[in-house]
Amino acid sequence: MGSRGPTPKASPVRRNKHESAVELSPETQPGRPLPKTLPVSSQTAKRFWKTWAESPQSSTFLETDWFELEITTLLVDQLVLGDTKLAGEIRQRVAKFGATSEDRARLRMKFEKDPEAPDEPTEKELSTFALDEELYNKLRAV
Fold this sequence. Notes:
The protein has 6 helices and 2 strands, in the order αβααααβα. It has helices at 11-14, 43-53, 63-80, 87-97, 101-106, 123-141, and strands at 22-24, 109-111. Helix content is 49%, strand content 4%. By secondary structure, the protein is mostly helical. A two-stranded parallel ribbon has the order 1-2.
């Protein structure tokens, strides 16, 4: 019985190299300050902005990306203030920035491995857990 389909190509030709793949440095960027005209009141929304503005992904942001980040920060502020219907919209928006490892894989984003990165969380990272827990408790109460 004959084989189905075309004959497979030689291995070097079959490698899946993506021309659009982006490799980012794991170092944080200086970032943009939160615009003074952006009416956010919660510390969580301010931290959200700071986290994204200093993220390695921000080195690739165009003006349209910064504008989307402003809108998403406003939505995060409203979420923290109690509008839990916005959670799904926020999740879709941050996925486009590459929020999770799955999102970054889909966007073909890779980070260079930082050989000096500590394995343990820093004091700064540990201090943010309280804010995350506060938000989690608000969402769980709904």
